[in-house]
């Protein structure tokens, strides 16, 4: 539509602060894509591992480095949800068509791994977090949030949430439908149907299902979380 594009660009250039990047921080990358690059009929001996893509938030990634991907596989044992992270070696790094030895924050990065490509096909890894083994954020199965509803949500007249609301929360690229355990006008205690790797304090968005549509209705922060047990194979 090209409406007010000049105003948006002016705001970005003159008012949005450039983030301070610390390459010595712990590595953290948010996955927004994942896929299997092998064509049908590829010989077993020539099959390549799955590829993940996303943005590095902090630190750096290097070819040959061992990384962990959380949550990984979600399993259930005796009624308890547990996570089995993927541990893999970085086989390659790409920025578009440029082959890299090291990747730093900024832009989108493709990471070649030795993970079974069937685990990466069709964006199955979206919402996961990458970093060095053992230092990633916890994986929450329940969270307590402080939230605010939008004054005028587009396409919705929702002015409150209750235990019957069909709610989805998004943290970075991760998304999960939730069961509302307790809810007030300011705070909510939620069970995540899909565990999310996140830190206390991270921002989230709140959407609600109305008919066949999903509407953004609020935002908030994680103030507490109940960890999912992590199992290393």
TrEMBL record:
UniProt key word Protein biosynthesis: yes
Pfam families recorded: eIF2_C, GTP_EFTU_D2
Domain of life, source organism: Eukaryota
PANTHER family, per the entry: EUKARYOTIC TRANSLATION INITIATION FACTOR 2 SUBUNIT 3 FAMILY MEMBER, EUKARYOTIC TRANSLATION INITIATION FACTOR 2 SUBUNIT 3-RELATED
Keywords: GTP-binding, Hydrolase, Initiation factor, Nucleotide-binding, Protein biosynthesis
Single GO term (MF): hydrolase activity
Domain Translation elongation factor EFTu-like: 49-130
InterPro entries: EFTu-like_2 (IPR004161), eIF2G (IPR050543), eIF2g_C (IPR015256), eIF2g_dom_2 (IPR044127), Transl_B-barrel_sf (IPR009000), Transl_elong_EF1A/Init_IF2_C (IPR009001)
GO cellular component, one term: cytosol
Higher taxonomy: Eukaryota, Fungi, Fungi incertae sedis, Microsporidia, Hepatosporidae
Plastid as UniProt keyword: no
Record GO biological process: formation of translation preinitiation complex
Domain Initiation factor eIF2 gamma C-terminal as annotated: residue spans: 142-222
Protein source organism: Hepatospora eriocheir
Name recorded for this polypeptide: IF2G
């Amino acid at each position: 539509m090209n409406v007010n594009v000049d105003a948006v660009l002016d705001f970005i250039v003159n008012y949005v602060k450039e983030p301070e990047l610390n390459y010595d921080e712990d590595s953290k990358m948010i996955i927004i894509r994942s896929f299997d690059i092998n064509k049908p009929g590829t010989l077993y001996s020539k099959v390549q591992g799955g590829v993940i893509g996303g943005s590095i938030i902090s630190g750096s990634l290097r070819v040959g480095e061992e990384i962990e991907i959380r949550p990984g596989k979600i399993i259930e044992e005796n009624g308890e949800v547990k996570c089995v992270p993927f541990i893999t070696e970085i086989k390659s790094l790409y920025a578009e068509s440029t082959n890299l030895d090291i990747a730093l924050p900024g832009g989108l990065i493709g990471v070649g791994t030795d993970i079974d490509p069937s685990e990466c096909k069709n964006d199955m890894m979206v919402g996961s977090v990458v970093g060095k083994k053992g230092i990633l954020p916890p994986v929450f199965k329940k969270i307590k949030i402080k939230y605010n509803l939008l004054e005028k949500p587009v396409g919705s007249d929702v002015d409150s949430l209750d235990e019957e609301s069909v709610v989805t929360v998004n943290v970075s690229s991760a998304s999960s439908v939730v069961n509302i355990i307790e809810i007030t006008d300011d705070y909510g205690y939620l069970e995540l149907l899909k565990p999310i790797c996140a830190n206390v304090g991270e921002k989230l968005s709140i959407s609600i299902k109305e008919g066949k549509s999903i509407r953004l209705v609020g935002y908030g922060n994680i103030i507490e979380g109940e960890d999912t047990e992590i199992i290393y194979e």
